[in-house]
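This section describes the prediction task in plain terms. A model, or a person checking by hand, is given the sequence of a single protein chain and must write out its three-dimensional structure as a string of tokens. No templates, partner chains or ligands are provided. The sample shown here is typical of the held-out split.
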Amino acid sequence: MFGWLKNNKETQEINDESAVIRVIGDRGSGKTAYMASMAYWPNANPDSPVQSIIPINDEANELIAQAQNILEQGLQLEPTDLDASVMDVKDYTLSITLKDRFAVFRSQMLKLNISCKDYAGEFFSDLIHKVGDSRLEDYLEDCLEATGILFLLDGTTHRKDSEYANGLDKFLMALDRSDLDGKHRRIALVMTKCEQSELWINRHKPKELAMKRFPQVHRKLQTWSQTTGGEVSYFTTSAFGMLGNQFPEPNAKKLSRDRNGTTSVIKNPRRWRPFGLVAPIYWLCTGQHHKELVKG
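The expected answer:
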């Protein structure tokens, strides 16, 4: 949901539009870290278009607690549980306000009020290997209610491109069963962990990066967009960010790296500043790109 906050001397009008978002991706793609970092919004850049990010429900407040008590201590988040029924999946609601100087007209503030369900990574991998599982069917049915899909990929898992494409194919087939009353569904492919050097240097070219590292996934998304009228866009993000300006390095201490991706914790919590987290949310809500949001 998003609304324009129109201010003048006499009246204040708020127009809201609804946007329901589902977050999908493989185990370790950083879905919960993405949400927790966005909810906490540490060391906010004063030049950022984001004025504030406010949790609206208890689940969103839990995200902030996880960021403070786990991520900020240089520890790992617990993985999301797939055993819960789809009705018990946590639904995070946040209100994101952009500063009026970044609005189209002066004296306006843009509010993005989002409701995001964060599915466990097994949901996506099970799409590939399981057939007829009632729990998976429930999850897919729940996804049909979403107008926006955040599809997160650890940018270092490019060797799993064909697996992701197979799972995505089944997911997109399920999406095609639904009718959004004339509205177009949007899918944001978000490559995470872009503090890693091979991703960092290409962070400003997300579509080209996706085509290079995940060519089969890219083709699936483009075909879906062309045949259904849905919209697809590409983003690069980091939940941890970088250290230094002249010679930047990841603000991440690598624990492991293999075919399943990169596992890290925050290196310097005092200088923790994520980047690119709000840009895909803005696009999912408005259908427009915001160049300043890509920076932080």
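For orientation: Residues 137 and 174 are 9 Å apart (CA to CA).
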